[in-house]
Structure prediction request, 124 residues.
Amino acid sequence: DIGPEGAGALAGALGNMVNMTKLDLDGNAIGLEGAGALAGALDKMVYMTDLGLGGNFIGPKGASALARALGNMVHMHWLRLHVNNIGPEGAVALAGALGNMVNTAKLDLFQNAIGPKGAGALAG
Prediction:
């Protein structure tokens, strides 16, 4: 596990890798703080096609921070955000980003307790 501190350090390095297409950080316990740090770097990675951030317990605020960056990723094919406890609030934030992610074929949100409100927002 890299944790929030490792995610922050990694975010600094990722800021220059704007052409990256795949990043897998599943199961690294980055939490809200790490999600916020990564969001700034991910914002520049418009060519990202495969992003794995499952099992990081980012919560609803982490999902909201990531949603702002995800909205720029129009080439995204597979987004993995399972086991992050994003809840309905996080799902609503992600729903706004998904509107721009027209090439997304796979969205992994299991074990996030999004409930009917979150599911409704994602369904449009």
Notes: The longest strand covers residues 22-24. Residues 72 and 102 are 11 Å apart (CA to CA).
